[in-house]
Amino acid sequence: MAKITLDNLAHSYFPAPKSEDDFALKELNHVWDDGAAYALLGSSGCGKSTLLNIISGLLHPSQGRILFGDKDVTDAPTAERNIAQVFQFPVVYDTMTVRDNLAFPLRNRGRDETYVAERVQEIARMIGMEEMLNKKARGLTADAKQKISLGRGMVRKDVNALLFDEPLTVIDPHMKWELRTQLKKLHHDFGHTMIYVTHDQTEALTFADKVVVMYDGRVVQIGTPEELFERPEHTFVGYFIGSPGMNVIPAQIDGNKALISGAHVDLAQAYQPLDGKVEIGVRPEFVRLSQTEGLPVKVRRVEDVGRHKIIRAEFFGHDINIIAGEDDHISADMNRVAFDANHVNVYANDWRVQGAVA
Amino acid sequence: MEKTVNQKAWFLVLPVLLLVAFSAVIPLMTVVNYSVQDTFGNNQFFWAGLEWFEEMLASERMWDALGRQLLFSLIILAIEVPLGIFVALNMPKSGFWSSLCLVLMSLPLLIPWNVVGTIWQIFGRVDIGLLGYTLDALGINYNYTQDTLAAWITIVVMDVWHWTSLVALLAFAGLKSIPDAYYQAAKIDQASRWKVFRYIELPKMAGVLMIAVLLRFMDSFMIYTEPFVVTGGGPGNATTMLSIDLVKMALGQFDLGPAAAFSLMYFLVILLVSWVFYTVMTTLEKRET
């Protein structure tokens, strides 16, 4: 086990990248702490699988270095890196039994048979496939196959890191939850460094200690689930995480006030004059519908999703979402909104701007 | 709901029935007709019963031809299948070179059988053929018109040249269908090259390989044109395959009765072998699911 350092790393699928747009993964410096559980979160094509494949050595980066501990492994082949990886679609060796599938990585490394048998039994219990050990892998259902893939990833104890590339895509929802719990437990018990790629925010937020959010080949924020919720560093983080995502409204900033079509919203901090595209972002959780306070709004519809209500409204020509408690009364004359000043973030060209205490 | 009864619907199957009758049933029945009768021309037929079948089954000539035929099919399968897999494994997987390989390899498949025969007939000639002349100049005694071994080597090499591409193309299609993740997983599992072949590539190719074996078996079992053009079945009867023998008997000697019995049995052997293949393939598939 080791910490993994990415030093000036970038990757382009073009042999001679001309502009930054040619890079699938833009320059990145980051240290993955030993024994932490990370989630790499982002929409499809944002470069998260590219990053994962560079770490596992399936791809050679166009520039930069990767270090495992203090050792530079940039040019080391996959086998030497001693990592385990689980792919999006199940990879099983069809002609082998479930037992041989699980034993395969150990046998290839010449471990002795008693150890292999013991370890296979242990993993089989963990993934709940003890009864199927002697069955051929072909003919099993997709989720059984994926459990074998997961098992094969976890069978070695001494791996530097465990990488998961959207491993639960093909698994049934209830099984998903169970396997995720298993993975968390495994992480807790053995303390492997784990990197889990997903585009599902629930998966990311429940699995990881730290979530790495990627957008357009760039890491836009690394933080705990709480940090991502409270202070999204980038508007993408704001609307990608949360259900519904953060409201982003174009505004002008004047000291500690935001002006939206002439109306003003109080901010908790004061800001220097900003250039470019200026927006404020506020999560629906921090917007209140009211009869008297705040600015005028036109409510379009109210959705009751069980735990709370989501109000879809129009605010100076922009869509805005508001979350109200399940028991909150909503009446027709509630046509104003108020923002919680402490939770209004200011963005210039999509990046969060830090203000000074007013 | 009331079922409509309309016997005129039978007319709809008439075209197919006619087509099949003229293309298969009537010619086949003609052969059956010949096989159980004797004729001396003038459209005079005499009932012979199973006499021709008995004669053919007792004839050493037919058994020899069948033996040569089986030997030939087994040799070319034993060479073409592994060689085809080997070629497919070493082909570039994508890009310009991959396309070029595919085109080059398809070329032999596009050449008409008798042209293939002519090419090799000339190629192997000691007086003007590049291969024959070179071998002769090197002091190797090679003459496919006189030496049985040389004749066999020539037609086997010719068949390998002509048909290995088919196996390679089918195997290549099987290989292409393997997702990258399998190879990546194998790398991570530290599987050796042999294990990658044994546990990933071979199982994924199994289906197409069965088809390749079946096609190559049937085709080689019915081979006629190429050896006929190269050796004419000689020297002696050394390369007289079943179909060559059949033609000699039917058109050369005009023994229509025995030839008809012969061809019916020939047909049944191919049918039997194909059925065995089909059964094996379907049971394998069933075991998979």
From TrEMBL, chain A:
Domain annotation ABC transporter: ranges: 4-241
InterPro entries documented for this protein: AAA+_ATPase, ABC_transporter-like_ATP-bd, ABC_transpr_FbpC, ABC_transpr_MalK/UgpC-like, Mo/tungstate-bd_C_term_dom, NA-bd_OB-fold, OB_MalK-like, P-loop_NTPase
Gene3D superfamilies: 2.40.50.100, Nucleic acid-binding proteins, P-loop containing nucleotide triphosphate hydrolases
Stored Pfam families: ABC_tran, OB_MalK
Keywords: ATP-binding, Cell membrane, Membrane, Nucleotide-binding, Transport
Transmembrane segments: none
PROSITE patterns: ABC_TRANSPORTER_2 (PS50893)
PANTHER family recorded: ABC TRANSPORTER ATP-BINDING PROTEIN, MALTODEXTRIN IMPORT ATP-BINDING PROTEIN MSMX
Protein's name in the database: Carbohydrate ABC transporter ATP-binding protein, CUT1 family
Source species of the chain: Antarctobacter heliothermus
From TrEMBL, chain B:
Pfam families linked: BPD_transp_1
Family: Belongs to the binding-protein-dependent transport system permease family.
Positions of the ABC transmembrane type-1 domain: 66-277
Membrane topology: Multi-pass membrane protein
Gene Ontology biological process terms in this record: transmembrane transport
Organism listed in the record: Antarctobacter heliothermus
Keyword Membrane attached: yes
Name under which the protein is recorded: Carbohydrate ABC transporter membrane protein 1, CUT1 family
Transmembrane intervals: 12-36, 70-89, 101-123, 149-175, 196-218, 259-280
One cellular component (GO) term of this entry: plasma membrane
Subcellular location(s) per record: Cell membrane
Keyword annotations of the record: Membrane, Transmembrane, Transmembrane helix, Transport
